[in-house]
Design brief:
Elements (H helix, E strand, L loop, with lengths): L6 H15 L11 E5 L2 E5 L12 E5 L2 E4 L5 H11 L4 H5 L1 E6 L4 E6 L25 H10 L7 H8 L65 E7 L16 E4 L19 E3 L8 E3 L2 E2 L10 E2 L19
Parallel strand pairs: 1-12, 7-10
Antiparallel strand pairs: 1-4, 2-3, 4-11, 5-6, 7-8, 8-9
Length: about 325
């Protein structure tokens, strides 16, 4: 989704963000766990998948620290309390909210990270992933704690260690079979009219609610899309010279994904939006480099149990 109508305002806001970021350094350590994701020779993309996931290639991944969960509303609230940060949706006065009645996105006045669907709708719970945050907001948050956003290749490196507690990796062409045990938060029902919420949630779910993958990470499929540091461009293309239409990649799929129509939860799936876009189903998690971790970035959690090379090929066919 692109905020073309607000491009001029966005550019002004972006310059403001750049100036403000230097003032955002925090003193308190973040209440978050950083999981060590081992490096290795990792496949990225899938030649059997849609065009922007091709051609598949090998990526020599380095060790990486990645947030165990997406950044929560509670974590973001503490960041705002300490820094006085104002998100882009708050500056613009509106955020993107999906309208079930029209099967379309609309800018809703007053939709912010505090109330992602709008000011007259429920507040976002503290243990849910923060949403209605732009890429610029996400980057400002991670940088304030001495961390950074992961690249999309790093996200896929981690996702290939398993996206569900039993280590399943969602792949192209694989039927999504329902079972009584839901392992990711997606849509159940006739999209966009009716979501039964059979997995317990029609919107976001608490981070970690569906368990941790063998890597130690949670929410690596469904719940919310996650911003990455990467510009959206074809694999194999030359480096992008960004302009005001350039977009950043999101990974992981969301609660709005109906598996009969959408496959955003697949490990190779890519979504993308301009860096100033704020949406009700997009959040983020932070990354850091081992050996160069800021004291405020978070706690170091136990290493993952599997290296990138040992990632399972697909331990399950149902979800
Ligand atoms: Ca759901």
């Amino acid at each position: 989704m692109r905020r073309a109508l607000l491009a001029a305002a966005a550019l002004l806001a972006l310059s403001g963000c750049a100036r403000d970021e230097a003032k955002l350094a925090v003193k308190s350590a973040r209440d978050a766990d950083l999981v060590l994701i081992k490096g290795g020779d990792v496949q990225i993309g899938d030649d059997a998948s849609q065009s922007d996931e091709r051609p598949a290639f090998r990526y020599k991944a380095r060790d990486l620290l990645l947030d165990r969960t997406p950044v929560t509303v509670g974590q973001f609230a503490r960041f705002v309390e300490e820094t006085g940060y104002v998100t882009q949706a708050e500056r613009f006065g509106e955020g993107g909210v999906f309208q079930h009645a029209t099967n379309a996105w609309a800018e809703v006045k007053g939709a912010t990270w505090r109330r992602p669907q709008g000011p007259d709708k429920p507040a976002a719970p503290a243990d849910h992933p923060v949403t209605q945050v732009s890429w610029n907001d996400a980057q400002a948050f991670c940088h304030a704690y001495g961390a950074r956003l992961p690249t999309e290749l790093e996200w896929e490196q981690a996702g290939r260690l398993g996206q569900t507690p039993d280590g399943h990796v969602f792949k192209t062409g694989e039927p999504f079979l329902w079972s009584n045990q839901h392992v990711i938060n997606v849509w159940q029902g006739a999209f966009p009219i009716y979501d039964s919420g059979a997995d317990g949630y029609r919107l976001t779910s608490p981070v970690g609610k569906f368990g941790a993958a063998p890597s130690g990470l949670t929410d690596m499929a469904g719940n919310v899309w996650e911003w990455t540091d990467s510009w959206y461009r074809p694999y194999g293309a030359k480096d992008l010279t960004p302009d005001k239409t350039s977009e950043r990649v999101q990974r992981g799929g969301s609660f709005l994904c109906d598996p009969t129509l959408c496959s955003g939860f697949r490990v190779t799936a890519r979504s993308h939006s301009t860096p100033d876009t704020s949406l009700m189903h997009v959040g983020f998690r932070c990354a850091a480099d081992p050996g160069r971790v800021s004291p405020t970035a978070g706690r170091l959690a136990a290493p993952g149990r599997r290296s990138a090379e040992a990632a399972p090929a697909g331990a399950r066919a149902a979800s």
